[in-house]
Amino acid sequence: MSLGYPLVQQRQADLFPSEVRSTIRSSVRVPGYRVGMASPAPAPDPSIPPADPQAIRACLTPTLAAEFDHEWGIVLDRVKQSQDLTDLHELLAKWRHTVHLELRDPGATYRLLAKAEQIQRAGHNPDAAPIDLQALIQQRLGH
């Protein structure tokens, strides 16, 4: 379907992958306008707190909050020295993921850490089934 403007079509082809262009073409039509409107972006997951230390801390159990406070102090000292906020942003992102995991499955963080420790001690995952990767590759290739 043509939007009626060759330069617009070329610009869309340069900027957007084909699936996005088809969404634009098939989007809502407004009388009197020749260009479609894109759909609104999905709303963020309400269970994930904003990248704000107080909001994150409020969602944590007392034990996890103590860990967060400890890491927060370390990162703040590092940021003061380096004057680079990258570590702070990374810490907040990490803890936002932790909060999301804990809200979906309480206790999952400690189970994950316990499993990681078990794997490190054993040198392998005792629950993992052995896989013959070469046979799997050959099977998928149809050989």
Question: How does the SSE layout of this entry go?
Answer:
Elements: H1 6-15, H2 18-25, H3 53-58, H4 62-82, H5 86-104, H6 108-122, H7 133-141
Key traits:
mainly alpha, single chain, 7 helices, disordered N terminus, 62% helix, extended, 143 residues
Brief characterization of the structure:
This protein is mainly α and 143 residues long. 62% of the residues lie in helices and 0% in strands.
Beginning-to-end CA distance, first to last residue: 43 Å
Major sheet? none
Derived structural class: mainly alpha
Mean pLDDT: 80
* Shape annotation: extended
Strand residues, percent: under 5%
Task: Spell out the helices and strands N to C.
Answer: HHHHHHH
Number of helices: 7
Low-confidence stretches: 1-6, 20-28
Radius of gyration: 25 Å
How many individual β-strands? 0
Binned, the helix content reads: 55-70%
Describe the structure.
The N terminus is likely disordered. 62% of the residues lie in helices and 0% in strands. It is extended. Helix 4 packs antiparallel against helix 5. By secondary structure, it is mainly alpha-helical.
